[in-house]
Write a structure and sequence with these properties.
This is IrrE N-terminal-like domain-containing protein. By secondary structure, the chain is an alpha+beta fold. The protein has four domains: 8-60, no CATH class; 76-255, no CATH class; 257-323, no CATH class; 330-378. Helices cover 54% and strands 7% of the residues. The protein has helices at 8-18, 28-35, 42-52, 87-109, 127-138, 142-145, 151-164, 209-225, 242-255, 258-264, 271-281, 285-294, 300-324, 330-338, 340-351, 357-364, 369-378; strands at 76-77, 80-81, 168-172, 174-175, 178-182, 190-193, 200-204, 229-231. The strands form three sheets. The protein has a four-stranded mixed beta sheet with strand order 3-7-6-8, sandwiched between helices. It has a two-stranded antiparallel sheet with strand order 1-2. A hairpin with a 6-residue loop joins strand 6 and strand 7 (200-204). The longest helix is centred in the last third of the chain and has 25 residues, at 300-324.
Length: 382
């Protein structure tokens, strides 16, 4: 069988872009292709393109294309942004943009009003004042938080509350429905696709529930600024970007008001004290540490040492959870991945004959009519 001549450098680029583990038996031969040791046949190259999530025609280019994130990139380190986005990140953004485009047309066809708060703030506004407005809009008071037994309950409440404001919220740890394409928290924690009629907030579901809450509030702050962008929300070093620092301040104040942490901190930065405060506020332990520092209750060296230790601890817990695996009810988790408000809109529009079922299946990431009907039933769409 004849082989296909492609530049090994292109195959190496595709492997790196997909972060594919070629040590596994299934993909071991890909390493031979990329090294030039064994040129692939046409069928093998097609399989390679599919496995690496690269358009087949790209592999015949003389050199790799310059790919960039299609929205503003706020994940800065010093003066430079993070380069070379992964295929998983790019495909996740493209999919969210596709859904946003559909929902914008749907909202306008329904004579929906634009979001009043979209772009209503600037970075010159006080984070304390804006956080109070957002907290009131979400009804996320301390009294409300006492009703939540777990971070998961608090997160679900916040997702529902943000969607009640008219913002589409999507939370997923994988690309589409592909459990073999996990999203990396090291690459990004969330992004916002700003639009007066169809704003989308995407939260990386690979993060802990408490960390997802901070990401959701951080991205909501960007909505108040009327911005699109991708963020990493690091609290261990100040961002060079003013809007990122502002969004971090707003998110932190929503979750843990500075005045309250000053009165409730018991003066000892122990694990027990940090955990106590995290449970009280239903916030990440990392956010608790940051707020204790923001309140000037500990110095920088003490804060950063505690932050690094807690970060390491959380990573170990996360790694253990990944090894254990997690299942869950598809009809509970999938609407969160696609967006509950978005899912309802697509289903209703299909039932009323304005969207073809074929297109509705594509938008929702389903392939079976029975699955579509199951989602409709779970979401309460008659």
């Amino acid at each position: 069988m004849s082989t296909v001549q492609v530049a090994p450098s292109m195959l190496r680029w595709a492997l790196d872009r997909a972060d594919l583990n070629t040590e596994t038996k299934r993909y071991a031969r890909f390493e031979q292709y990329a090294s030039g040791e064994k040129p692939p046949t046409l069928r093998q190259l097609e399989e390679f393109a599919s496995a690496t999530h690269v358009p087949f025609g790209y592999l015949f280019l003389p050199e790799p294309p310059q790919e960039s994130v299609p929205i503003p990139d706020y994940r800065t380190i010093g003066d430079s942004g993070v380069s070379e986005p992964s295929a998983n990140l790019l495909d996740t953004i493209y999919e969210a943009q596709m859904r946003q485009d559909w929902y914008r047309e749907y909202a306008q066809s329904q004579d929906a009003d634009p979001l009043e708060f979209f772009g209503s703030a600037t970075v010159d506004d006080s984070p304390l004042e804006i956080s109070e407005k957002i907290r009131e809009a979400l009804d996320f008071s301390m009294e409300r938080r006492t009703r939540f037994r777990t971070w998961e309950e608090a997160l679900r409440y916040l997702i529902d509350a943000v969607e009640e404001l008219g913002v589409l919220v999507m939370v997923s740890s994988v690309v589409g429905n592909n459990t073999h394409r996990s999203l990396s928290v090291d690459e990004f924690r969330g992004f916002t696709l700003g639009d007066p009629f169809a704003t989308v907030i995407f939260v990386n579901g690979a993060d802990s529930k408490s960390a997802q809450m901070f990401t959701l509030m951080h991205e909501l702050a960007h909505v108040w600024l009327g911005e699109s962008g991708i963020s990493s929300e690091d609290l261990d070093s100040p961002s060079e970007l003013r809007n990122e620092r502002w969004a971090n301040s707003v998110a932190a104040e929503i979750l843990i008001p500075l005045a309250q942490i000053r009165s409730e901190y018991r003066g000892s930065l122990t694990s027990a004290e940090v955990s106590r405060l995290a449970k009280r506020y239903k916030a990440s332990t990392l956010v608790v540490l940051r707020r204790i520092f923001d309140a000037r209750l500990v110095d920088w060296d003490t804060y950063i040492a505690s932050y690094r230790a807690e970060e390491k601890h959380l990573k170990e817990l996360s790694d253990q959870k990944k090894k254990q695996g997690s299942g869950g009810d598809y009809y509970n988790t999938h609407p969160l991945q696609v967006g509950q408000q978005f899912s309802r809109a697509v289903i209703v529009d299909a039932y009323e004959g304005r969207t073809l079922y074929r297109d509705a299946f594509r938008l929702l990431g389903t392939v079976k009519a029975s699955t579509f009907e199951g989602l409709a039933e779970r979401l309460g769409v008659a």
